[in-house]
């Protein structure tokens, strides 16, 4: 199966699971609506697909339980977007071409929608896997030593010129913000699907490269695409005093760095022999 | 052992565990400091103590793993206080006699401190229990059908006179806001400590009564105590247009209701024979 076919098979299944279960498992209609608004706003489902593709790469079955875990990851990712967009954070009005949650529903509602999606996502992962280990992986990845830690460093260093050329700081911040959660998708699949030690090592290295690439890709989208293409305000990082790989290296060197990471990631997959996982790396072509 | 002795034994152990592990398990010193500021602000540790006391009541051992679970609950409780105090929510400047997190550190920092404490608390529960079931209990209790759902109903109904005399709505809102998490402490202990079916039934009924009482108690504190006694602004609910049991029933009838719940809770404990759990109900004496 190609990456395209895999994506075409599983994306509608993920989408319906999310829509159906946000309706059936949230008692209050209005809260359900506010949560669904952001979850069903047309995300690429990259993280759940990555979890499922990793399972596929190690010949592990995808049943309803695995879809529940995959969709739990998407709930958590959506929570992070809602909170990142808040006025006190990045203060964004649009996301994926639609009004952000706080613009649509109000600030308290947006904070609470995020606060509702996070534990619900973790619950789905716990129930789908019946594994405290998977819960430990995901909570570590989105906690103070992961995604939230990265978001804090981002907020704390915005308009702080002293870190603008500190590549260690910027690498660390971008890894925490984006890489950790992406790596956790692969790590949970490796754990859940009982990968062999050698598969595990290669897949985790692939995840490391893929996660790091993703943030550079996202920074490049900000300058390469128009707002209409990206579905959100672009050319914004530089204006708002954000420090990232792009402001550190510039466009040309960022592309070189991204190409290097992709080549390394591809190399990890040589012995795994998964066309589907390799296909994830084509995503980056549009900014190269 | 009496409730007083139990509390005097375990409170310092909970306090040191929290202080030590927020330091050793959070990599970034500044984030650790912001999280610790609120966690170490002098809370009564009611929820972790309730978890431990329930274990004790069913003769289940308290080791390091159980302390980790108990402290995980406290992290989650603290997250909820930080987010409830935010400008977009209850907009409180003081909590437990100290500046609230957003007043002390800034709004983005407070949102992120909460966002860091929630997954970290869940992680501690997952690791201490090695049980996906406990994770499902806690995440259900604090998600859209629990605490966050209650907070949403509270925000949504503030200054809405049409619900002011709707006792079903108010009971539901207060149960979700406060009762759910308190009940989850008992439910996790019952599950973790393998209570017998009859113990389980009695303890869950006790938890139901205790959880419901706690919100009425908290509403009464708002009118009965001065700000100095309560460590936060009091006489605030009525001013800010909040609907709760107290605005519904008035002081006298709220006290009657609270006494009724306490009597019922005490009755559940008759056959459990736990002086320690019974002692929790004395907490309410100061508002009766």
Automatic annotation (TrEMBL), chains A, B:
Cofactor(s) needed by this chain: Mg(2+)
Pfam families hit by this protein: polyprenyl_synt
EC class of the enzyme, as a word: transferase
The entry's keywords: Isoprene biosynthesis, Magnesium, Metal-binding, Transferase
Top-level taxon in the UniProt lineage: Bacteria
Catalytic activity from the UniProt record: isopentenyl diphosphate + (2E)-geranyl diphosphate = (2E,6E)-farnesyl diphosphate + diphosphate
One of the record's GO molecular function terms: metal ion binding
Entry's Gene Ontology BP terms: terpenoid biosynthetic process
Family, similarity comment: Belongs to the FPP/GGPP synthase family.
Protein name, entry field: Farnesyl diphosphate synthase
Source organism (scientific name): Lactobacillus helsingborgensis
């Amino acid at each position: 199966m190609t990456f395209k076919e895999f994506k075409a098979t599983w994306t509608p299944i993920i989408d319906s699971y999310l829509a159906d279960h946000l309706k059936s498992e949230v008692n209050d209609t209005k809260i359900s609506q506010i949560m669904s608004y952001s979850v069903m706003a047309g995300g690429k489902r990259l993280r759940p697909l990555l979890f499922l593709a990793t399972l596929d790469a190690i010949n592990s079955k995808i049943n309803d339980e695995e879809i529940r875990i995959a969709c739990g990851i998407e709930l958590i990712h959506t929570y992070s977007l809602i909170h990142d967009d808040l006025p006190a954070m990045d203060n964004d009005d649009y996301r994926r071409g639609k009004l952000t949650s706080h613009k649509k529903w109000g600030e308290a509602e947006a904070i609470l929608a995020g606060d509702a999606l996070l534990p619900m996502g973790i619950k789905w992962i716990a129930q789908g896997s019946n594994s405290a280990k998977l819960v430990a992986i995901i909570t570590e990845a989105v906690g103070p030593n992961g995604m939230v830690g990265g978001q804090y460093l981002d907020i704390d260093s915005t308009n702080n010129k002293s870190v603008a050329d500190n590549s260690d700081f910027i690498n660390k911040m971008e890894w925490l913000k984006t890489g950790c959660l992406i790596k956790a998708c692969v790590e949970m699949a490796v754990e859940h699907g009982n990968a062999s030690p050698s598969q595990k090592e290669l897949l985790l290295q692939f995840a490391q490269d893929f996660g790091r690439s993703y943030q550079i890709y996202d920074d490049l989208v900000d300058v390469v695409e128009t707002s209409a293409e990206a579905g959100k305000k672009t050319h914004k990082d530089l204006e708002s005093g954000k420090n990232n790989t792009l402001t550190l290296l510039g466009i040309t060197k960022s592309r070189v760095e991204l190409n290097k990471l992709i080549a390394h990631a591809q190399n990890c997959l040589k012995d795994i022999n998964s066309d589907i996982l390799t296909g994830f790396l084509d995503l980056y072509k549009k900014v190269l």
